[in-house]
TrEMBL record:
InterPro entries: Cyt_P450, Cyt_P450_CS, Cyt_P450_E_grp-I, Cyt_P450_sf, Cytochrome_P450_fam2
Keywords from the UniProt entry: Heme, Iron, Metal-binding, Monooxygenase, Oxidoreductase
Name of this protein: Uncharacterized protein
Binding site for heme: 446
Highest rank taxon of the organism: Eukaryota
Cofactor(s) needed: heme
One annotated Gene Ontology cellular component of this protein: cytoplasm
GO BP terms: organic acid metabolic process; xenobiotic metabolic process
Molecular functions (GO terms): heme binding; iron ion binding; oxidoreductase activity, acting on paired donors, with incorporation or reduction of molecular oxygen, reduced flavin or flavoprotein as one donor, and incorporation of one atom of oxygen; steroid hydroxylase activity
Keyword Oxidoreductase (UniProt): yes
UniProt keyword Iron present: yes
Protein family per UniProt: Belongs to the cytochrome P450 family.
Length: 500
């Protein structure tokens, strides 16, 4: 008895030491095991929990810092740790093509904030595949690339022109009107109707969406990357605000629109995205196959269409105006081409595109130099994947530095100069370059590319046709700097539009 007690006491007294020893041993053993994976070179310094997060300027999308890190490591493919995730970053067009065209990288990483956002078209997996296919076909049927959408944008050009005229040449910040015009195009496509620029409920919708996309979402995502921040009292990381805005959008706008569309649904008259969705939902009612055509999914899809399709196009238009202020010679040539070809009054059409080579070259140069999404969207692999001699574990993040591709000195002559002429071929006509990828490419490429291109062309050419633009008297030119928000918009500036 006494002996058993002595042994038991001995074990108990040393149990803590034993456990500590065991944990240290397992950790050391795991650490010393050769990893079955191998990653591209990584910047050497990293901070526990944050990884390389603190090395990058979070006021931008990190594009310049990542590129510099790649140059320092003498490798166009690098890896970084951002919070808990390892992310491989590509800097070459050929690598982007190989990676994004393959089926191996269609994931969206560990989906952040997934109970709140990113559950619609910006997602991954079978649900995303089904919804992407549906959205692409719905957008096509609703008139993308055909006259129907063109007509709606032309109508919006008239409203935009009229609103700008009301400023009488006085300086103003074009942020609100460009956002309103592009939001109205998404409204026409999704709800089947547009709003007046002065409509208070529309202003509120835009405010909520803009605040979420450009401010709340970014902060909430940061909180997901830094462990423990969720438990900080208050709402420093804007999680509550994000949710509150989403609830208001749903209750005040989406829900009533959905109810109204249910009442007016006519299978022979599908004129907008909501009716197309209800149509598909009804077609699947009897189906035993798994599908995601339900009301909640529609709400998420609409949220994604607004988030992805409003600010992006509006910011591109604001970069365009800014580029014209900074490059008066290009501006003069663009205006002259437009006025010589279309004249001052006729509405601009998509058919004019092939006649306006220099203008088209200028738009390409604007999108080359001023990216709305310089790092594109986050991709990831589902299974262990070999890529460029590296062996990546499942759920490795993949980002492409589109900024680096658009400025790659191996491809572009004087990449940091604004030179639309680089897109003019020997025959004097516009010449496309595949290395321009503002909409990304491959399996997750932007589904709104066709619509966005149409909007940018029609809005930009109309503005150039109708107005002389100039900086307010006595003011220096606004800086060519981006905000680095959800979309890399130019910093707010004022401009005068003078009606000719
Ligand atoms: C100048 C305007 C725009 C730019 C520069 C742009 C750019 C992009 C980029 C870079 C991506 C990420 C692709 C990837 O992860 O590889 C994307 C995705 C997406 N965009 Fe756009 N976009 C624009 C306008 C639009 C518009 C007007 C819509 C809506 C009609 C839209 C809807 C989407 C959607 C739904 C996705 C997610 C696609 C997927 O994951 O399968 N975008 N866009």
């Amino acid at each position: 008895m006494a002996l058993t007690q002595i042994i038991l006491e001995g074990i108990l007294n040393n149990l803590t030491t034993l456990l500590v020893f065991l944990v240290v041993f397992i950790l050391l053993w795991k650490y010393l095991q050769p990893s079955p994976y191998n990653f591209p070179p990584m910047p050497s310094w990293k901070i526990p929990f944050l990884g390389h997060l603190s090395f990058f300027n979070l006021k931008t999308h990190g594009e310049k810092d990542f590129w510099q890190a790649a140059k320092n490591l003498k490798s166009s493919t690098i890896a970084v740790k951002l919070g808990p995730m390892t992310i491989v970053i590509l800097h070459k067009y050929e690598d982007m093509k190989e990676c994004f065209m393959s089926d191996n990288f269609t994931g969206r990483g560990r989906v952040m904030l997934e109970e709140l956002v990113f559950n619609g078209l910006l997602r991954d997996g079978p649900r995303w595949k089904e919804q992407r296919r549906f959205a692409l076909s719905a957008l096509r049927d609703l008139g993308l690339g055909k006259n129907r959408m063109e007509q709606k944008i032309q109508d919006e050009c008239l409203y935009l022109t009229k609103t700008i005229e009301e400023y009488n040449g006085k300086p103003f910040d074009p942020t609100t009107i460009t956002n309103t015009a592009t939001s109205n195009i998404i409204c026409s496509m999704v709800f089947g109707h547009r709003f007046e620029y002065s409509d208070q409920s529309f202003k509120r919708l835009m405010f909520l969406m803009n605040e979420n996309f450009n401010d709340n979402l970014r902060k909430a995502m940061l909180s997901e990357m830094i462990p423990g921040t969720k438990y900080i009292p208050g709402d420093f990381f804007r999680m509550k605000r994000l949710k509150k805005n989403l609830d208001e959008i749903k209750e005040t706008f989406l829900q009533p629109e959905f109810e109204q569309h249910l009442k007016t649904y006519d299978p022979n008259n599908i004129e907008d995205f909501i009716h197309a969705f209800i149509h598909e939902q009804k077609a699947r009612e009897e189906s035993t196959e798994q599908h995601w055509f339900n009301k909640q999914q529609l709400m998420w899809n609409i949220d994604d269409l607004f988030n992805a399709g409003t600010e992006t196009t509006a910011s591109t238009l604001r970069w365009s105006i800014l580029c014209m202020l900074h490059n008066p010679n290009v501006y003069k040539k663009v205006r002259a081409e437009i006025l010589d070809t279309i004249g001052p009054d006729r509405p601009v059409t998509m058919g004019d595109k092939r006649l306006l080579s220099y203008t088209e070259a200028t738009i390409n140069e604007i999108q080359r130099m001023h990216l709305i999404a310089p790092m594109g969207g986050l991709h990831s692999n589902e299974y262990t994947t070999e890529f460029k001699g590296y062996k990546l574990p499942p759920n490795t993040g993949i980002l492409v530095n589109i900024y680096a591709i658009h400025h790659d000195p191996d491809h572009w002559d004087e990449p940091f100069k604004f030179k639309p002429e680089r897109f003019i071929g020997p025959d004097g006509n516009f010449q496309k370059d595949d290395h321009i990828v503002p909409f990304s490419l491959g399996k997750h490429s932007c589904i709104g590319e066709g619509l966005a291109r149409m909007e940018i062309f029609l809005f930009f050419v109309t503005l150039m046709q109708k107005f002389t633009i100039k900086s307010p008297d006595g003011h220096p030119l606004p800086p060519m700097e981006g905000t680095g928000g959800g979309t890399n918009a130019p910093k707010p500036y004022e401009v005068c539009f003078i009606r000719d």
